Amino acid sequence: MQFKNIISNGQINEKNEDSVLDIINSLREQQKWLHKLSIDDILEYFDMLSKFWKEEKSLNNKFNHSLEHVTKFISKENLKKELSISLRGNYKILDAFEPINGQTNRIYHAQPRGLTVHWIAGNVAILGIFSIVQALITKNVCLVKVPHEYEVLRDIIYSMKDINTDKIKGDEFLKCIALIYIEKTDSKNQQLISLEADVRIAWGGKDAVESILSLKKKFFAEDIVFGPKYSYAIIDSKSLKNNSEKIAQKLALDVSVFDQFACNSPHTILVESTKSNDNDIKQFTKLLANAMNTVNRLMIPKQIISEQKAMDILALRAEYDIKGNVICSENTDWTVIFSKESGLAEPCFSRVIFVRPFEKIEDIKKFQNRKIQSIGLEISDKTKRKMVADDITKYGGDRCPHVGMMSLYSSPWDGMFTIDRLVRWIPLDD
Length: 430
Prior knowledge:
Blueprint: E1 3-8, E2 11-15, H1 20-36, H2 39-55, H3 57-62, H4 67-73, H5 76-86, E3 106-112, E4 115-119, H6 127-137, E5 141-145, H7 151-158, H8 170-173, E6 177-182, H9 187-196, E7 199-203, H10 206-213, E8 222-226, E9 230-235, H11 237-256, E10 266-272, H12 278-299, H13 307-323, E11 325-328, E12 335-338, E13 352-358, H14 361-365, E14 372-378, H15 382-393, H16 418-421, E15 423-429
Parallel strand pairs: 4-5, 4-7, 5-6, 7-8, 9-10, 9-14, 10-13, 12-13
Antiparallel strand pairs: 1-2, 1-6, 3-15, 11-12
């Protein structure tokens, strides 16, 4: 099976004889309907969808509780904020020509780019929902190329048909999205969807993203790439001394939500070392291990892993039993590794977290690069926190959330306002 039409025209199809071009043409027709909707009506729809997904336990269980992050993002309150920040303070420019920044002689309209094509990563398919939602609220239609294991994403997208507002019927809104599966070897259809795209949105690792970007595209098509990134956290000595247990609990959640397969999941915790806080760091490592165990046991059970990944974890534990200190579950559910090595650990993923000391920020700066995404900052003094963020992000790093907030999607992401990239700005002299 090289191609499969999963959802189109508001229905689950599960067919492989359909034409990709016919699906794309249907989406372009549906955009005329989408463009007539007011942005406030669209936001009302997503607000109702947020409440529905939050209450639907079967869907939450399928996504191993990570769906909660999506429900927060698509609430009306949050989407209004995201739109206002990205669209120069006036999200009504999605509906009509409007002034911005107090200008009196020029008005602006943010028009959709058209067909957005989303290549979704297999390891964290839920992240694709963030780009789909942002495309829809900017009145673009979505062709979504799903990974091989697509059933959970299919179910969550198809549930949109069950949400109806006074102005929007869910089965009609669902027609703005099509889900398709295309084998890597199906170069004809891979190239077709790339050439048809007005925006190409790529989620995935280095090889996947490079493969997508190598496809031919329209000259004016926009590329939005959410590629492979690395995240870590910094804890200063004062925060460690005063709030170590709470910090450990928050970090355990950040590590566990996506089993570290999301680019915003921390892999290394850098703890400020002083002459007198060795015991504090050792105690923190134990607290983090306890928190990892609690989260796995009571809140977010770990997903089943491959035999190869289990072997990787066991090999890493054996290595650091010799050159560090390992605290771990009896099985391979979670692993906390302390060592006095400097810098950022090579990621193992699958709830393996490294704790390492540092003496001064200058020691961290030399490990900064553009591959760094989220840097969780737990620094006691606000002024110092701003200085550290400014200092290290000159060399890399796209966001500096508090620990406990690292796994939340927010805008900007990967150093860009995605919403701004999904529209074309039209000025009109008034």
